[in-house]
Each structure stands twice: as C-alpha cells, then as structure tokens.
Amino acid sequence: MNRRISAHFSSLATSLVLVLLVLSATTSFGRADSDDGIVRVKSAVPMPEAISRIKADIAAKGIKFFFEVDQSKLAADAGIKLRPSTLLVFGNPPLGTQFITANPNAGLDWPVRLLLTQDDNGDVWAVWTDFGWIAKRHNITNREAQFKMATTVVRSITSTITSK
C-alpha cells in the first residue's frame, strides 16, 4: 500500500512540476496580491461549469474530494441574498498531513478550501489561501517542498477554468 501511494505521489509530483513550469511563466496567475494571503484566479466559464471542471480535475488527479458547500443556498435558506458562492474542500492526505505533523494548528487550514464566487459584475473567481502564507501563519519552516507541491496542485486545478 505504501509503495502504491509513493508511486502515485511521485507520478503526480512529476506531472505537477511540469505544470508549475508552464504556469510560472505567467506572472499574475494565482499569486497572493496582499498581506492577507488570498489568491484569486478569474474564471473564463460560468459558475456551474467552473465547479464541474474543478471537481472533474480533482477526481482525475486522484485527489480526495471531501465536500461541497453551496453558501448561497444556505444564505437563501436563512432568508439572506448572497451572490453565487460555493466552497469546495479536497486534499491529498499523504501531502496535507505533512503540514499538520509540523504544527497541529495547521489543521485549521487543511484540507484545502477553494472558494468559487461571483462578483457584482458577474465574473467568477476561484479563491484560496496562499500556501506560503499558511506556512508563515503556522511557523512551519521544514515543509517547503510540500508547500510548493500544494501550490502546484491548486494552480493546476484552477487552470482548468481560465479558458473557455
């Protein structure tokens, strides 16, 4: 079982390194713009399609999908109007638990949370917390490669919605 996970992780890592090289050529793709650690990527497709593409890519990568929260529906059920907003929670336990073993408080930020939200102009955005920011928040200094891998994975996943 351990060998199978290692082989899968190694294959995934190789693929994702290639994706990172391509994405790093685009300077504005998925970077935290401020001190709050928030990364935003604009979608080229409507919310339902963005959700569908992201969930399909998560499944194709063999990443565990935990759950989806339709925040706008929850708001509507409470009598509150909210623009479309859906939270997707997913992760790769062999990778994600590396952060929690470094600092148990990192469990506040794992598994990965990806928010899809629509702004007042109708634009759809994929939003997540920058993993470097998470490392600083939890004073994790010994998992640099793992944080880079997590960044690569989420950039790859969100790249599925940046073109029609």
From TrEMBL:
Organism phylogeny: Bacteria, Pseudomonadati, Pseudomonadota, Alphaproteobacteria, Hyphomicrobiales
Check the record and name the Pfam families matching this protein: DUF302 (PF03625)
Source organism: Bradyrhizobium japonicum
Tell me the first and last residues of the signal peptide. Answer: 1-30
Per UniProt, residues of the DUF302 domain are 70-130
* Protein name (record): Chromosome condensation protein CrcB
- Residues annotated as transmembrane: none
Report keywords, A-Z.
Signal
Entry-linked SUPFAM superfamilies: TT1751-like
Q: Does the keyword Transferase apply?
A: no
InterPro entries referenced in this protein's UniProt entry, alphabetically = DUF302, TT1751-like_sf
Q: Does Lipoprotein show up as a keyword for this record? A: no
